């Protein structure tokens, strides 16, 4: 469905040439190749995330080397996309092999209509949540381009790229630790709550260990990585990097709510975050420019943890009254 939607959108709204459509079709092939990624959930659930992460790390390392080599040799975007598609293929093959090494076989999988119906019923809010999450993750750059031009997008994108480098950290933390936290709930509620507290403290500490030095060293870091021409991005980065605190905690909260099957709450929180981001960008970009876009992102990324806290407080009020 995603492949057909992407190809249809390319024909309807894209550039009217065959090369553009060929790029979309090539990229769309990765949708099929990513289907076996579901196997990684097995390793995460059995607290064996190390195997899956190692496979992805080595493939990504080789892929990055190939992409850099291709760029230095003057290769075009078609070959870059081809490398990305091959990456997806190799990661899928490695996951199949790791799964088979556990004595398990994909051929033994079977379709269960009742289970499929239940999964669809519980997961559709997560699908919409992923869509809203993607929108408020990128909408600021789109609006900066619309309201301030392409040059402004380039300056703003520098702060975004530096910050996004660290987004893999909460993903690794959540994937590696949260299954063990869920298993602790079957043992003792006290142990579960204690581990959950340390889990969020670790996410907060990780984000602070990133935000503090990056905000202090923003100017020399940008000069070193992008050159002095992008030095104006330093002021944006000093604000934008602090959005990692809300994002790190938000990912952890999404994991917890999903494990508790509160998928509609996940969708609601992410939808509110998206709406807040759009509204703040509309208000702040025309008035204070790129700094306003960074502030809008900082505030919107805090919506999920702050909203989850308010929901938790409201749930406790009746018990406290008793």
User: Hey, roughly how much beta strand do the residues contain?
Assistant: under 5%
The CA-CA distance between the termini, in Å, is 51 Å
The percent range for helix content is: over 70%
Tally of individual helices: 15
Question: What gross morphology would you assign?
Answer: globular
Low-confidence stretches: 317-322
Strand elements, count: 0
Average pLDDT across residues? 81
Q: Indicate the radius of gyration in whole angstroms.
A: 22 Å
Q: In this structure, how is the largest beta sheet organized?
A: none
Order of helices and strands: HHHHHHHHHHHHHHH
Structural class designation: mainly alpha
Protein architecture, described:
The protein is an all-alpha fold and 322 residues long. Helices cover 84% and strands 0% of the residues. The protein has a domain at 115-322. The radius of gyration is 22 Å and the shape is globular. Mean pLDDT is 81; it is low at 317-322.
């Amino acid at each position: 469905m995603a492949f057909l939607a992407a190809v249809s959108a390319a024909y309807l709204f894209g550039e009217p040439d065959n090369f553009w459509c060929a790029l979309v079709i090539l990229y769309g092939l990765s949708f099929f190749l990513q289907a076996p990624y579901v196997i990684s959930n097995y390793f995460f659930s059995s607290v064996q995330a190390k195997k899956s992460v190692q496979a992805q790390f080595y493939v990504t390392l080789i892929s990055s080397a190939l992409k850099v080599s291709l760029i230095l040799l003057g290769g075009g975007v078609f070959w870059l996309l081809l490398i990305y598609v091959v990456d997806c293929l190799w990661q899928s093959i490695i996951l199949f092999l790791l799964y088979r090494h556990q004595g398990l076989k994909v051929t033994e999988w079977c379709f269960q209509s009742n289970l499929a119906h239940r999964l669809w019923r519980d997961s559709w809010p997560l699908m919409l949540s992923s869509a809203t999450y993607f929108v408020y993750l990128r909408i600021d750059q789109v609006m900066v381009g619309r309201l301030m031009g392409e040059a402004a997008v380039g300056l703003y994108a520098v702060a975004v790229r530096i910050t996004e480098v660290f987004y893999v950290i909460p993903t690794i933390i959540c994937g590696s630790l949260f299954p063990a936290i869920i298993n602790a709930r079957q043992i003792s509620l006290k142990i579960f709550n204690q581990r959950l507290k340390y889990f969020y403290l670790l996410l907060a500490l990780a984000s602070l260990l990133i935000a503090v030095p990056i905000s202090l060293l923003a100017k020399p870091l940008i000069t070193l990585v992008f050159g002095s021409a992008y030095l104006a991005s330093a002021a944006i980065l000093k604000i934008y990097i602090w959005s990692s605190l809300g994002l790190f905690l938000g990912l952890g909260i999404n994991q917890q709510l999903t494990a508790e099957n509160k998928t509609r709450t996940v969708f609601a929180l992410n939808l509110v975050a998206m709406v807040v981001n759009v509204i703040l960008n509309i208000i702040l970009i025309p008035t204070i420019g790129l700094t306003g876009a960074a502030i809008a992102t900082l505030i919107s990324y805090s919506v999920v943890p702050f909203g989850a806290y308010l929901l938790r407080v409201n749930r406790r009020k009746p018990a406290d009254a008793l």
